[in-house]
Amino acid sequence: MLYAILCYAHEETVFAWSKEEEDSVMAKLIEVQTPYAQAGKLGPVGRLMPTTAATTVRKGKEEPLVLDGPFAETKEVLLGFYTLDVETLEEAVAFSKALSAVNPGSSSYEIRPFYVFHPGEIKNSETKT
């Protein structure tokens, strides 16, 4: 089963990390990810830019409205996601718990099964490792 693991946190905290803090957190997260990647169970992983970089297209009465920002009234925002191909929800929960253990501050991980409607191919020149 494919699972999307959606990562929520306080973006003002995450985007305020120093380079050293960022590098430390990423190294710990990669330690959690590596066994899943080596087993062929980890799909694309992405971090979203801050909500200040967001654009929202909202259905209008006549035409869609294009707005700056997500206009979410919440302290925690969606900061990124993992895609995981595991047999059970329990495996996805274990992966999320391991991520949570090494991710500082308050964060939450929402786990949702999903289906691929169109696999597509994206070639991103700004991919980070």
From TrEMBL:
Residues 1-114 form the YCII-related domain. It holds the Pfam family YCII. Belongs to the YciI family. This is YciI family protein. It comes from Neorhizobium galegae (Rhizobium galegae).
